Amino acid sequence: MLLPRQKTPDLSLPTLDHGAFDLSAESNERGTIICFYRGLHCPICANYLKELEKLVDTFAEKGVACIAVSSDGEERTRAMADKIGATKLRFGYDLSLSKAREWGLYISTSRGKTSIGIEEPALFSEPGLFMVTPEQTLYYGSVQTMPFVRPHFSELNAALDFAIANNYPARGEYTGAV
Fold it and tell me: Where are the domains of the chain?
């Protein structure tokens, strides 16, 4: 389990149009939002990523970069970026499932074609949303077992305003006896 205020796993991936992504080399003032999504086969992911695409500049103004990541290969990732009309959001691809597990993501097996007629990969990770500090520690994390009921980017944006104004620390860090 990832813990707030502790170092996250490393993450290095190719991206569609922005060269290699290496989380340890990110130099954003306040950190990086990593949105792990299921893949091209997921219509809910497409809608979710459209919302993130709309807020990339808003997050950047606050010193936070964004990347969307899946275990899809380059071709399927390009199809997703095209599908949502992405012009600002970075897309990382070829996430290994062992790396997905390091991040605490759940892994699912294929159920064949989805409601939009696209074949699911044999194995793929379920969604996760993380904000990682410039020191590569976990500030915020959410993982899901299903594609439904994800955190809203507009709420994360508003929460970030509050956190910045109040120097609010990452929470959930306690690991002692209860």
Answer: 12-161
Backbone angles phi, psi at 142, to 5 degrees: -145, 125
Q: The whole model's pTM is what? A: 0.97
How far apart, in whole angstroms, are the C-alpha atoms of residue 43 and residue 49?
10
pLDDT digits (tens, 9 = 90+) for 154-170: 999 999 999 999 999 99
CB 40 within 8 A of CB 74: no
User: Rounded to an integer, what distance in angstroms lies between the CA atom of residue 7 and that of residue 136?
Assistant: 6
Nearest CA to 47 out of 86, 18, 105 is that of 86
- Give the CATH number of domain 12-161: 3.40.30.10
Q: Cα 85 vs. chain centroid, distance in angstroms?
A: 18
For residue 109, give every residue at least 6 positions away whose Cβ sits within 8 Å of its Cβ, in sequence order, or none. Answer: 122, 123
